[in-house]
Amino acid sequence: MATQPRRGGVSLPERRGSSKPESGILAKITSSPIVSRGRQAACDAAFVSKKLLRSTGKAAWIAGTTFLILVVPLIIEMDREQQLNELELQQASLLGAPPAAPAHK
């Protein structure tokens, strides 16, 4: 007697009422055109917000790197210039020269 090899797996019982169409109130509500339009509007809103968030992230990246490359060195250089002016003013006052009016106010 030749036996066939066993195949693994579990067969699940069929769901109740799978052969007849659902006629409950929940089925009627979920299949209504208002719900389907609302679902479509929610999907569209999610899509638009995802695109907006992605483009906002790209814009923030561009603004941040531009700030680091252009503005931060400018701030550092302006601070150095301010320190140099203060040092010259201090040296002039130590040497006895009359204090000069600051160039920038």
Automatic annotation (TrEMBL):
**UniProt name for this protein:** Mitochondrial import receptor subunit TOM9-2
* Similarity remark: Belongs to the Tom22 family.
Location(s) in or outside the cell = Mitochondrion outer membrane
Describe its membrane topology: Single-pass membrane protein
The organism encoding this protein is Rubroshorea leprosula
Which Pfam families has this protein been placed in? Tom22
Alphabetic keyword roster: Membrane, Mitochondrion, Mitochondrion outer membrane, Protein transport, Receptor, Translocation, Transmembrane, Transmembrane helix, Transport
**Gene Ontology biological process terms, A to Z:** intracellular protein transport
Q: Looking at the record, which segments are called Disordered?
A: 1-25
Keyword NADP in annotation: no
Q: Where exactly are the transmembrane stretches of this chain?
A: 59-76
InterPro entries annotated for this entry? Tom22, Tom22_pln
GO CC annotations, alphabetized: mitochondrial outer membrane
